[in-house]
UniProtKB/TrEMBL annotation:
Superkingdom, natural source: Bacteria
One Pfam family linked to the record: HTS
Name of protein: Homoserine O-acetyltransferase
Site residues, Important for acyl-CoA specificity: E111
Important for substrate specificity, annotated site positions: S192
Keyword entries, A-Z: Acyltransferase, Amino-acid biosynthesis, Cytoplasm, Methionine biosynthesis, Transferase
Source species of the chain: Bacillus kandeliae
Amino acid sequence: MPINIPRQLPATEILEKENIFVMDVDRAHSQDIRPLNILILNLMPEKEKTEAQLLRLLGNTPLQVNVSFLYTATHESKNVSKSHLEQFYTTFEEVKHRRIDGMIITGAPVELMEFEDVNYWKELEGIMDWAKTNVTSSLHICWGAQASLYHHFGIGKFELPKKCSGIYKHTVIEPTVKLLRGFDDEFYAPVSRYTDVEVEAILAHEELMLLSSSEEAGPFLIMSKDEKQIMITGHLEYDVHTLAEEYSRDVAKGIEIDMPKNYFPDNNPTKKPVNKWRSHAHLLFSNWLNYYVYQETPYEWE
């Protein structure tokens, strides 16, 4: 089954060219199916790229999915047009009365700031608190994962000596967990961050499970034991060129930055990177939608 998104959304054309099944509202209403309602709080600056990346993964399952996008009212986005937000996004005030099957909170380029110094932190805390009773399962990505660990579980982040960027091998620690069904014992995933969380703090927390980790890049997949909060410290949703674009951007800004590790063939930035994580990205999002959203959410919210 496809994702149901507005026909005018720029990501629609990208996905259709990739043969991702996209359904418009009229077709969706003709099917006697209870679709899953997924809310995406998109905190990334280049929102249209993130939309396409996440919709690509959400649209590759047998489930019909209605997707809504949320932005923070307390922060003015500088890299997306106001008309795009007005046409395709909504605010928390407009959705807080609803019950949502699944929610995704993306990363954000604010990780070197203290959480409380982020200008939309209070709003984000309200959204995360609301999700505990109004959302079946929440998926948090990169800084969104760190925000969840800090807000829900009191685990802070620490700054790394330099940016951790590249494609890293991760080891599955809990192979029987439904989220990792079909995963290889080892898998690759993109990481792009300046901060990290302590493995020991996760392992010591009675409400958390560490599902996978990397010797080089640290903890990767973390889940609350009630299965309502899933944290991904990297970016399985990234396109093959995303790390290259970030690297070129930082170099152009004069930032002293290392080349993404294990990414460019022969460590030559003129060579096209190879995608080593696509299948596991699709598998993780499929498992999340099936086992933690579809199988757990009521047909009719009371």
